[in-house]
Design brief:
Layout (H helix, E strand, L loop, with lengths): L7 E6 L5 E2 L14 E5 L1 H7 L2 H4 L18 H4 L10 E3 L1 H7 L3 E6 L9 H14 L4 E5 L3 H13 L2 E7 L4 H9 L3 E5 L3 H15 L2 E2 L8 H5 L1 H9 L7 E5 L4 H15 L9 E7 L4 H7 L26 H10 L3 E5 L1 H15 L5 H15 L8 E6 L9
Parallel strand pairs: 5-13, 6-7, 6-9, 7-8, 10-11, 10-13, 11-12
Antiparallel strand pairs: 1-2, 1-3, 4-5
Helix pairs in contact: 5-6, 6-7, 10-11, 14-15
Bound molecules: pyridoxal-5'-phosphate (PLP).
Length: 389
């Protein structure tokens, strides 16, 4: 096999466009916006081809040229990140009038959520850059994944968690030896504590989009699904949106693949699915805005999407507008009903956030936004058995 290496070129500010060298620890741009990894796509195209991919192992590391780790042999921190299956939901599809309804099941990843993608790549890159300790706010899955991958890398994890977040996540983080701090309030309140810890200690801030590499792991969702659909993309892709990194990542990944010549016919219409009790992106979309406002007193049983104001909200909205997508909120009853129904007729227990995408698909089909005959993909972001609902 030809040796492959990262085509990482530099970091670019998502707002002001500043270009920064990549091989030192970076957090946000001086202007306060997230930095994004940019690649020498011509270099990547030379070795990352459809034919070459077919020979590579079935894990997210198969996309090495478009991942940010320079020395994969030395710094890969892995717990066995499989290519997650896309499962047809024919019965539910029939019930809601979508003939081709499928679900990409990221609940099967290590630590039971798609946060493993961000942690595998983010922690590997942090190790390569010499990070010794990091802090992050989390509703649970991100903290669980980063604690476990951090432990494996020998990097200390400091996680700050809203007191109401499900206990299972706390057990997971503590089992990995993370230092867990509980706070009253929501993830935004946890974020303030993290900011203070980082100011005082100089620790690496691993908060969503405050370091540039977690999103690089999450974009592999887009790489995988494009490959799994044999480049004939579904018409609609529904994603449960909290911080929005998954949606931004899928969009970024698909654009990169298309630019290096992969035969992606078109992008799916991307739908940001939120909970009615925390729907800042939906409110912004409905008003035609490019940024969201802080959502007061947010509340939903789908903890992964209880994010009142996402740092990358403008990137989520960009992706939604650019693909002719939309944003939609579903209430907690609809989420619970969808979760029960999918388990009862498909034998698949979705996480609440994943169930929200099914409820949203039903609502969008009902309203006619999803048309008869369209192919629809939902993402189950976590393992159903991690949550009680
Ligand atoms: C974190 C999380 C989300 C939201 O993901 P973002 O990419 O940050 O929007 C959705 N579902 C689950 C289960 C999560 O843990």
């Amino acid at each position: 096999m030809t040796p492959v290496s990262s085509a990482l070129a530099h970091l670019e500010c998502s707002k002001c466009g500043s270009v920064l060298a990549a091989d030192v620890i970076r957090q946000l741009c001086a202007c306060g916006a997230p930095l994004l990894a940019r690649y020498d796509l011509q270099k990547a195209a030379a070795s990352l081809t459809v034919a070459e991919l077919a020979r590579r192992p079935w894990s997210l590391w198969r996309y090495a040229e478009l991942l940010p780790i320079r020395d994969l042999l030395r710094y890969t921190v892995s717990l066995g990140e499989i290519i997650t299956p896309i499962v047809p939901l024919a019965v539910i599809g029939g019930e809601i009038g979508v003939d081709d309804l499928r679900c990409k099941d990221d609940g099967l990843l290590p630590t039971g959520s798609f946060k493993a993608r961000g942690a595998a790549v983010g922690v590997s890159r942090a190790l390569e850059l010499g990070v010794k300790a990091f802090a992050m706010p989390t509703n649970g899955n991100a903290g669980g994944a980063w604690s476990m991958y951090g432990r494996r890398a020998g990097i200390d994890a400091h996680v700050v968690v809203p007191r109401d977040a499900p206990a299972i996540h706390r057990y997971e983080m503590e089992a990995a030896g993370a230092k867990v701090t509980l706070v009253d309030g929501v993830i935004a309140d946890a974020g303030k504590v993290v900011a203070q810890m980082v100011r005082e200690t100089g620790m690496y801030d691993a908060s969503t989009l405050k370091e540039p590499y977690r999103i690089e792991g999450k974009k592999t969702m887009g790489f995988e699904l494009a490959e799994q659909y044999d480049w004939q993309m579904p018409d609609v892709l529904l994603y449960p949106t909290g911080g929005g990194v998954g949606l931004i990542g899928i969009y970024k990944g698909l654009l990169e693949l298309r630019t290096i010549g992969f035969p992606i016919d078109r992008l799916p219409r991307m739908v940001a699915v939120q909970a009615a009790g925390c729907a800042p992106i939906v409110r912004a979309f409905d008003a035609g805005l490019r940024e969201s406002q802080f959502w007061q007193d947010s509340k939903t049983a789908a903890f992964g999407i209880n994010v009142p104001k996402a740092l990358g909200d403008f990137l989520v909205l960009d992706a939604v507008y650019a693909t002719d997508g939309c944003a939609i909120a579903v209430d907690d009853n609809a989420i619970a009903d969808a979760r029960r129904r999918v388990a009862a007729v498909e034998g698949m227990l979705l996480c609440p956030e994943g169930a929200a995408t099914i409820a949203a698909a039903a609502a969008l089909r009902e309203s006619g936004w999803i048309r008869a005959g369209e192919r629809v993909l939902t993402i189950n972001t976590g393992n159903g058995i991690k949550s009680v609902l």
